[in-house]
Automatic annotation (TrEMBL):
It is found in: Cell membrane. Residues 3-239, 255-499 form the ABC transporter domain. Residues 504-530 are annotated as: Disordered. InterPro entries: AAA+_ATPase, ABC_carbohydrate_import_ATPase, ABC_transporter-like_ATP-bd, ABC_transporter-like_CS, P-loop_NTPase. It is a peripheral membrane protein. Residues 507-524 have a biased composition (Low complexity). The keyword Repeat applies. It comes from Arthrobacter livingstonensis. This is Heme ABC transporter ATP-binding protein. Signal peptide: none annotated. PANTHER family: CARBOHYDRATE TRANSPORT ATP-BINDING PROTEIN MG119-RELATED, GUANOSINE IMPORT ATP-BINDING PROTEIN NUPO.
Length: 530
């Protein structure tokens, strides 16, 4: 089935999210839409799937114009979509989720899932999905849940499949399995629109690449194009994709977490007996699929959780039991994973956001009142130093792009002497050019002697920044490994194997192989420092 978009425009008031986009996806082709978060990729696919009505333009399937009043029309036309955030009901079985919206009933109005179960088994056998129709969705690994989403589309005879950032929640091994599945679907004649900002994956799987920047198509590329060329198309200028980072020279261990357990109000363990340390002048990168305890760990350090057992020591001082203000005053710089909700006050000016954790201190405050002149001078300096793109530092923070908002948060947190710097998802939603800048600033903080903790679900970022890498799974520490460890080793750990078992599994086919290097067992507090 051939898909064509002609002049698709989608506006939200004055914001033009898609600007006269032309796109052709041939039958049996994997066509990648490459662009940074906020470029307009997902908006375009929501138009295609009937979730948004286009402001202008038309959609053609097999050269015939079509109009969709909603997703049901798109599905009826042969279009399926797997959203970045799965649209599954966790307490339902696989069969119940697949049947949802197209249920059939038998005698007495009783739900009949026999036909749905049969179709699930047929599709699973054809593509090697290995999905049990009667399994509860919330008991399935994330990678299998994604297969359920694909099955939902295929059961409805989708000939064009949209995959919106499908690898965002997958381990490296699950990503490889998804790439294999995409190849099988292509061989079966299914057309795939693959939406991503990950250059390595796009190059590996695509037949054709279309690059979108700021709502417009800026060009097409062959999968064999250089990574730097694709990156330049995405951001509109030349960028460096490799971080020039010298080996760490760790000093004294000044931050130590011992037997840390965090519970919710119901007594459920969100973190389970975690122990590790970070030395001055090193970066500990914490890897794992989102939702395995990373958020709880950083929030526990900051003093945001009530139910904590164990110890968090910074420079000889216990942080457990201290307020957020006391933790910040102890020298902790913190970049939260959600900059809009937790890192900035959107309606405040950029200048005010740059002193959110300093405005009560001199020279930003005098005799109980904020010193506006000093705050304005500080903002002018930080805007220039961190290359924040704005008309004025008096503009509201929510008028900035995502990358510039992140620069404001980092500028604030790195503008005072720190004894510990924590950055959670430091480059989420940030363009390639800003990533380059932010990574350099984080490494510069390390090189200044500060212990640094980076939490990221982007494995490339973990490998780029980490001097050592800790992996969390289901609230437990799977181990700490050197920063130059293999993606395969980290992927196994992210799937729940302790470091020593993961390394043994990798070494098993080739006895005597050095693999990814020595690893520290799960729960080790130090690990090998590189």
């Amino acid at each position: 089935m051939k898909l064509e978009l002609r002049g698709i425009t989608k506006s939200f008031g004055a914001l033009v999210a898609n600007d006269h986009i032309d796109l052709v996806v041939e039958s049996g082709e994997i066509h990648s839409l490459l662009g940074e978060n906020g470029a307009g990729k997902s908006t375009l696919m929501n138009v295609l799937y009937g979730l948004y009505e286009p402001t202008a333009g038309e959609i053609l399937i097999d050269d015939k114009p079509v109009m969709f009043a909603g997703p049901a029309d798109a599905m009826a036309a042969g279009i399926g979509m797997v959203h970045q955030h799965f649209m599954l009901v966790p307490v339902f079985t696989v069969a119940e989720n697949v049947a949802l919206g197209g249920e059939t009933t038998g005698f007495g109005g009783i739900l009949n899932l026999d036909d749905t179960r049969r179709k699930i088994r047929e599709i699973s056998a054809r593509f090697g999905f290995d999905v049990d129709p009667d399994a509860l969705v919330d008991e399935l690994p994330v990678g299998v849940q994604q297969r359920v989403e694909i099955i939902k589309a295929l059961v409805r005879n989708a000939k064009i499949l949209i995959l919106d950032e499908p690898t965002a929640v997958l381990t490296p091994q699950e990503t490889d399995e998804l790439m294999d599945i995409m190849g099988q679907l292509k061989s079966n004649g299914t057309s795939i629109v693959f939406i991503s900002h990950k250059l390595r994956e796009v190059k590996a799987v695509s037949d054709t690449i279309t690059v979108i920047r700021r709502g417009k198509v800026v060009g097409s590329a062959d999968p064999g194009a250089a990574t730097t060329e694709l990156a330049s198309m995405m951001v509109g200028r030349a960028v460096s994709l490799t971080l020039d980072k010298a080996d760490a020279e760790p000093g004294e261990v000044t931050f130590k977490v011992s037997n840390l357990t965090v519970m919710n109000d119901a007594g459920q363990r969100l973190l389970n007996d975690i122990s590790f340390s970070v030395a001055d002048g090193e970066i500990l990168a914490i890897a794992g699929v989102q939702g395995n305890g990373q958020t709880e760990l950083t929030e526990a350090v900051l003093g945001l959780h009530k139910h904590i057992q164990g110890s968090i020591m910074l420079d000889g001082r216990e942080l457990v039991g201290r307020s957020v203000r006391q933790v910040l005053d102890a020298g902790v710089g913190f970049v939260p994973e959600d900059r809009q909700d937790d890192g900035l006050v959107g309606e405040f000016s950029i200048a005010e956001n740059l002193v959110l954790d300093l405005y009560t201190q001199e020279p930003y405050s005098r005799w109980g009142s904020m010193n506006r002149a000093v705050i304005a001078k500080n903002a002018k300096e930080k805007v220039a130093e961190f290359d924040v793109r704005t008309q004025s530092s008096q503009d509201a923070a929510d008028t900035l792009s995502g990358g510039n908002q992140q620069k404001v948060v980092l500028a604030r947190e790195l503008s005072r002497p720190l004894k510990l710097f924590i950055a959670s998802q430091p480059t989420r939603g940030v363009d390639v050019g800003s990533i380059e800048f932010l990574h350099k600033r984080i490494v510069a903080e390390r090189d200044g002697g500060t212990p640094v903790i980076i939490v990221s679900t982007e494995l490339d970022e973990v490998l780029e920044l980490g001097d050592r890498i800790a992996v969390l799974y289901a609230g437990r520490l799977m181990g700490i490994v050197p920063g130059k460890s293999s993606r395969e080793l980290l992927g196994l750990m992210m799937a729940g194997l302790p470091a020593d078992e993961a390394q043994a599994q990798l070494d098993a086919p080739a006895a005597g192989s050095s693999g990814a290097g020595d690893v520290a067992p799960a729960g080790d507090t130090e690990g090998e420092r590189s």
